[in-house]
Amino acid sequence: MRILGIETSCDETGIAIYDDEQGIMAHRLYSQIAVHADYGGVVPELASRDHVRKTIPLIEEVMAEANLKPEDLDGVAYTAGPGLVGALLVGCSIGRSLAYGWDLPAVPVHHMEGHLLAPMLEDDVPEFPFVALLISGGHTQLVRVDGIGHYELLGESVDDAAGEAFDKTAKLLGLDYPGGPVLSKMAEAGTPGRFKFPRPMTDRPGLDFSFSGLKTSAANCIHKEVMDEQTKADVAWAFQDAVVATLAIKCRRALEQCGLNRLVVAGGVSANKAIRAKLEEVTKKLGGGVYYPRPEFCTDNGAMIAYAGMQRLKSGVSADLTFKATPRWPLDTLDPI
Length: 337
Hints:
By secondary structure, the protein is α/β, with parallel strands linked by helices. The chain has ten helices and ten strands.
C-alpha cells in the first residue's frame, strides 16, 4: 500500500510517498525561511501564497523520483490541522482535489500526530506504551501514548512554546530568523554559570510548562549587560540550559508518574543537541531509552504525514467530498485505532 503525504501547516511545504513495505520512496521539503526572514517571523499570507506556488511542483517531483503514476497510489494524506488556517487550506484543497481526481481515499491528518509518529520511520522503533515530548515552535506537550490515537495529554505550555521562546530570545540577541538554531549554536561558545535563569514551574507539582517568564528573565539580562559577542554566547548558554533542565525535570516526572521508561521526542526543537543529550541521560537512569526521528524529519515534513495517513487509512479513515482545516485541534480528541 502506498500513500502520498502533503504537509503545509506553517512555512514549510513537505511532500512524500510512503510504502508500507518499502518505507519512504521519495520526499521533498521546501522551506520558506528566505521569504519570511526580512519580517523576523512567519507572515501567514505569504506562507499561504508560497504553498500555492510550491505544492504541485513538489508533488510532481516526488512522483517522478518514485517512478509512480496516480494509479499506483492507494490514498492521499494531507495535514488538516493544527496550524495556520490559510496554509492548511492550501494543502487540504490540493490533497482533497487530487484524491477526487485520482479516485483515491483522502485522509486528513493531525499535524502533531505526524510528529509523534515520526520516530516510527526509523529502524529502532519504540514499543507502546511510551511518553512523548512534542516540542516545536507552536507546541510543547507531554503525552502518554498507549497506541495510535490512544493519547492522554499530561501537560503542555500555558504560554510560549519552547521553540517560540528560543526564537524570541534569539531575536532579543539580534540573531537572524529563525533564531532558535542560531542561538543553540552560539550557546556552544558560552561560559557555563556566568548567568543563571529560572527553571519555570519546576518547583510545583504537575507537568505543565511556562517559558514566557524565562524569556523575560533573558530579556532583562540582555538589557542590563553590555552585549559583546561573548556575553551573547553566555546568555544563550544560560537560556538553553534553563530550557533543557526544565524539559528534563518534567520528562522524568512524567515517566515516573506513568511508570514508564521509554520517551519519544519529536518536533523541530527535538533536533537540539543539548536537549537530546540530557534526555538520554534521564531515560538511561530509569533503565529505558529515548527515541527521535532523524534530523530531517524533526521539522515539518511530508514523510510524517504520509506515515500517519497510512495508519489512519488502514483503519478505514477517509474524508467525504468536503474538507476542513482545523487551526486548533487538541491531540487527545483523535479517535483511537
